[in-house]
Design goal:
This protein is α/β, with parallel strands linked by helices and 303 residues long. It contains 11 helices and 9 strands. Strands 2-3-1-4-5-6 form a 6-stranded mixed beta sheet, sandwiched between helices. It has a 3-stranded mixed beta sheet with strand order 7-8-9. The radius of gyration is 20 Å and the shape is globular.
Length: 303
């Protein structure tokens, strides 16, 4: 990087916050142009703060996808809230993501109060604009702007990839001058083991319902090259909270686990750039969402 470039290069941290299921992870993936965070229509899919890095000649933006802010019912939920608040405190800028077709609710009021924890500007981002009629969009925009003195407001559809550039341009203008914190080819600071576990969890979430998605944790125990072959052996444990849930995740004749494994393997092979043999085992760990030792071991809670 030349001296001239270093004077104009901007960099910083941008927290994506909002209620569960408003599209934060979808927006992150759309901004990066590739899949970094898993997505699901089930609330509270994101459990940890995930950093994703967008590098251009003139800027480097480190987006922090946070767990949805909600009222926690267990220790995992409390850890998720702490992760979201920590992201707000370390960010240079925050984006409050809301659904354009929905009026503000009590959860939005709570998040607006939490925004006081960031010292930088906050953008209001009305996502899923394709689901809102024009008059509904205008009305909801005004209602949200009553909650907080936002520095700017953007309307977009993360799923369709519409309206992203104005948001990116505004982010770049607000970030301080600074260096690249990460190499330009790096797109996330999450280890491949974590990403593989999240891919597996995503596939199971999509195939299960009711309480099962919230009761699932995935831990990759081993990734090792098979001797004499261009093949990786990946062994992972899928944990649920009750013995009765084990059979549900496996499915009749093992069908659900097989389907989830096949879908996960295809994405993991792209991640590692080689063939993968995926060995999945399902186990019960009673009430794991309230067991601090397991949460720390599995990466859901800071040590």
């Amino acid at each position: 990087m030349t001296g001239k470039e270093s004077k104009t290069h901007r960099s910083g941290f941008v927290a994506l916050v909002g209620r569960p299921n408003v599209g934060k992870s979808t927006l992150l993936n759309s901004l990066l142009g590739q899949k970094i965070a898993i997505v699901s229509p089930k609330p509270q899919t994101t459990r940890t703060a995930i950093r994703a890095i967008l590098t251009r000649d003139e800027m480097q933006v480190i987006f922090i996808d946070t767990p949805g802010l909600h009222r926690p019912r267990h220790e995992l939920g409390r850890s998720m809230i702490r992760a979201a608040r920590a992201a707000l405190q370390e960010s240079d800028l925050a984006c409050f993501i809301v659904e354009a077709h929905c009026r503000p609710g009590p959860g939005d009021n709570h998040i607006a109060a939490s925004l006081q924890e960031t010292s930088g500007p906050v953008f209001l981002v009305l996502n899923k604009a394709d689901l809102a009629a024009p008059e509904q969009l205008q009305s909801n925009r005004l209602l949200y702007r009553d909650l907080y003195p936002f520095a700017d407001c953007f309307t977009l559809s993360a799923l369709r990839g519409e309206g992203l550039e104005p948001l990116l341009n505004a982010i770049a203008a607000c970030l301080p001058e600074g260096p690249r914190y990460y190499p330009p080819e790096m797109i996330t600071d999450q280890p491949e083991r974590f990403i593989a576990a999240e891919i597996i969890r995503e596939k199971i979430i999509h195939l299960t319902r009711e309480e099962i998605p919230h009761a699932i944790a995935v831990v990759v125990e081993e990734i090792s090259p098979r001797e004499g072959r261009e093949l990786l052996d990946l062994r992972a444990h899928i944990f649920v909270e009750r013995e009765s849930q084990v059979g549900i995740v496996i499915g009749k004749g093992g069908r659900l686990l097989k389907d989830a494994g096949s879908a996960a393997r295809r994405e993991i092979e792209v991640l590692f750039g080689r063939q993968v043999y995926l060995d999945l085992r399902v186990k019960a760990r009673r009430d794991w969402r309230n067991r601090e030792r397991l949460l720390r071991e599995w990466g859901y809670k800071e040590t």
